[in-house]
Amino acid sequence: MSTDLDDPRFTAVGLFAETYTGLTNRFAAQFEEHRLSAVEFEVLMRLARSPGHRLRMTDLAGQTSLSTSGVTRVVDRMDRDGLVRREACPSDRRSSYAVITPAGRQRLDEVLPGHLALVQEWFIGQLTPQQLDGMLESLRTIRDAVNPCATAGSAPDEAASAA
């Protein structure tokens, strides 16, 4: 039995991958101008947008493209650079938080205007408001199915109960 190479599932996944690659390539040069890697930007954004501007290291791994050991390495490097710091978890000695520092927030503030301009030009600006709404809903549905940990630690009550 031969596989149909014109199967629309190949097209859907291929278009998604090509779009992601194209966008990340456009963003990479701008991040580099601000002495950040794409993953460091992702970590700063996740922390800045989280309750208390912090996340457990395991939750940060679940919300990024990094493994638990990868998050440890990135956070260690960012800690040395003064962009984040670690805080011990008072309720669980085995766990720690990554917290964005004022220097990390400042670096993020420097990057965001240019980043948002690129997002507008190459992503949001390519879609009608209705297309954007539908795409966001679809991406959340898929994300929740393939990565249910992606929102771990992002609810305000979770951060409050963990503190």
Automatic annotation (TrEMBL):
GO biological process, one term: response to stress
Protein name: MarR family transcriptional regulator
GO molecular function, one term: DNA-binding transcription factor activity
Upper taxonomic lineage: Bacteria, Bacillati, Actinomycetota, Actinomycetes, Micromonosporales
Alphabetized PANTHER family for the sequence: MARR FAMILY REGULATORY PROTEIN, TRANSCRIPTIONAL REGULATOR, MARR FAMILY
Signal peptide: none
InterPro entries: HTH_MarR-typ (IPR000835), MarR/SlyA-like (IPR039422), WH-like_DNA-bd_sf (IPR036388), WH_DNA-bd_sf (IPR036390)
Superkingdom as given in the UniProt entry: Bacteria
Xref: PROSITE patterns: HTH_MARR_2
Residue ranges of domain HTH marR-type in the record: 1-144
A Pfam family per the record: MarR
SUPFAM superfamilies attached to this UniProt entry: Winged helix' DNA-binding domain
SMART domains for the chain: HTH_MARR (SM00347)
